[in-house]
Structure prediction request, 502 residues.
Amino acid sequence: MLDNLTDVPLLTVATVASVLVLLYLVRINQLLLGTPDEIKRLTPTRWTKDLLRETYRRLEADPITTSSYAKRIPPKLERRYIVTGGSGLVGGYIVLQLLERGQPPESVRIVDFRPPSRADMLYGSVAEVDFVQTDISSAEATEKAFRKPWPSSVAHLPLTVFHTAAVIVPSDRSRLVSGFCEAVNVRGTQNVVDAAQRAGADVLVSTTSASISIRPVELWVPPWRMWLGQRPRHFWQVLDEKDFFEPLRRHEEFYANYPASKAAAERIVCGANSERLRTGCIRPANGVYGNPTDNTVGGALSKAVLPTWTSHIVQSFVHGMNVAISHLDFEAILASPSSSSSPQAGRPFVITDPNPPISYRDLYFLVQTLALTPFRALPLQPVIMVLLSYPIEWYSLALARFPVLRRILPELSGEVKHLKPGLFSICTHLVASNAVAGQPVSSGGLGYTGVLTTLEGMAQEVVEWNNDHKGVAGARKAYQTSVSLADEIAKAAATVQSVAGS
Prediction:
């Protein structure tokens, strides 16, 4: 009888505690689904069907290409070029813009892990550009790619290096699994800088990332703050360059290994600035797009049903064309031997599209309205995804910490492997500012202006997608994104290590 009486209050306490936890999670979910007033004011209007269809028809009839904005590309320089990552999104557009302004194909060399596969790089003069397959994490391979002899017609010209090669691992945050990002993004960048110096390059512009400035979002708001209406800290952030002029943050102060590695790489490039090698970095806004191979628009187009908890999230995006042209703007400044002491040299600049940020709801509406292939967004509750992300991370780290477990437990694959807590810091409201890059050169800026807006860039990508899918009922072409490429490179590296260790 006494035992039964004891069980009743314990049951009551457990019930009350469960209810309080449930209420807390419901409230956290509400906060994560919110859009702060400061952000709402930045995006007062939404894309409409009429606007989308009008833009689509205009771009279908007259697409924006390198030739249509040729006058905006900085003038041709008598130089030769190495573009690491030249098969990719940003590097590919750099190559196309160099050729458009009159650089002969023999003066350009692509150094990359894979040959170009983009449709716009498989024909015309770009198909004549030299390609050297290279793993930049290898100092020997990088040196060999840079030392390869040039045609006699250009061998005497000064050398510019555009370093765009990197791997993107969006959510891993533990040092235990940081080796891959560090090998390619940090050690690879050092290898590129060293090889560039030995090859006699005098200009090096590197692509880093505006995600460097993102602080980890603090998802779990204390109850006493939550009931006062306070949101998770860093739920919205401005992406700028201010952090570069402060001491480098500790690893755990970055949301993941990727931005930590890009920050270290950025310091390597900017620290190498001298009269002999003038350097600088471009930080594209979070979410680079511009080809069906991208993760942003291409990722949505590739799915008939897209599970998402980010429809309300507002972010700045940047088209690969805009990122590429900012590199050429930067080169035009650094080409002058006296520019090493200019305010532009040895520092990064954030770049974004020339328009206010948009919401992911706008992007999903654009795909649903314009794409030939069916699409719909499936809303998910963010707090449930957050709770799922922790055991996924624990499982992945257990396999990394105790390799013997891999003999009995499978590795996670597909998109689920990226559902980890670090991912949620880039699923918050992120507004980029390229106010500094947009200033005139005389005022310390790059004189940057974008050549197309987010609306134009995303609509044009759907035009390209539809052209690829006309007459292919229900089928979707498979494109390799930067994230899936990183997975492929990681598997290749693991295989090499396994063979070497056997």
